[in-house]
Amino acid sequence: MTNRAPIEDVPIGGDGIRLGQFLKFAGLLDSGGDVKEAVADGSVTVNGEVDRRRGRQLVVGDVVGFEGRRVRVSP
Q1: Are 73 and 62 in contact (CB under 8 A)?
Q2: pTM here?
Q3: Domain boundaries, the chain
Q4: Which of 2, 51, 52, 71 could be joined to 46 by an S-S link, Cβ 3.0–4.6 Å?
Q5: Which distant-in-sequence residues (6+ apart) come within 8 Å of 61 by Cβ?
Q6: Phi and psi dihedrals of 22, rounded to 5?
Q7: CATH superfamily membership of 7-74
Q8: Would strands 44-46 and 49-50 be described as parallel, antiparallel, or unpaired?
Q9: CA 37, 42, 45, 51 torsion-angle sign
Q10: Cβ distance 56 to 62 under 8 Å?
Q11: Tens of pLDDT along 32-74?
């Protein structure tokens, strides 16, 4: 099943950000503990694929998905 949720752009003010930081910055999750659990459970996607690495370096254009929302890293 393809996720058809609209993509929200979230400007990060730079070239890159770690997945765990971005999930909190974009308002998808509230705390580091929530991030750790969601990522470990395989609930987070990056560019349509499950990624279990909180420290993954995201770059401008990457799309992160969680619970029906999709947000794109923008400069």
Answers
A1: yes
A2: 0.91
A3: 7-74
A4: 51
A5: 72, 73, 74
A6: -65, -40
A7: RNA-binding S4 domain (3.10.290.10)
A8: antiparallel
A9: positive
A10: no
A11: 999 999 999 999 999 999 999 999 999 999 999 999 999 999 9
